[in-house]
Specification:
Radius of gyration: 10 Å
Strand content: under 5%
Number of domains: 1
Length: about 40
């Protein structure tokens, strides 16, 4: 699921900032499942 690559850079940056803390929580839960997002 590389949806973040499909969306444009603008929406991608905004999405990241919006769900930044949510992503961190998700990363802790699905750590082994999700690849390196912010590499």
């Amino acid at each position: 699921m590389d949806f973040r690559w499909e969306v444009p850079a603008k929406r991608r940056a905004r999405w990241h900032v919006t769900n930044r803390r949510a992503w961190r929580a998700a990363t802790t839960t699905t750590r082994a499942r999700t690849p390196s997002c912010c590499g």
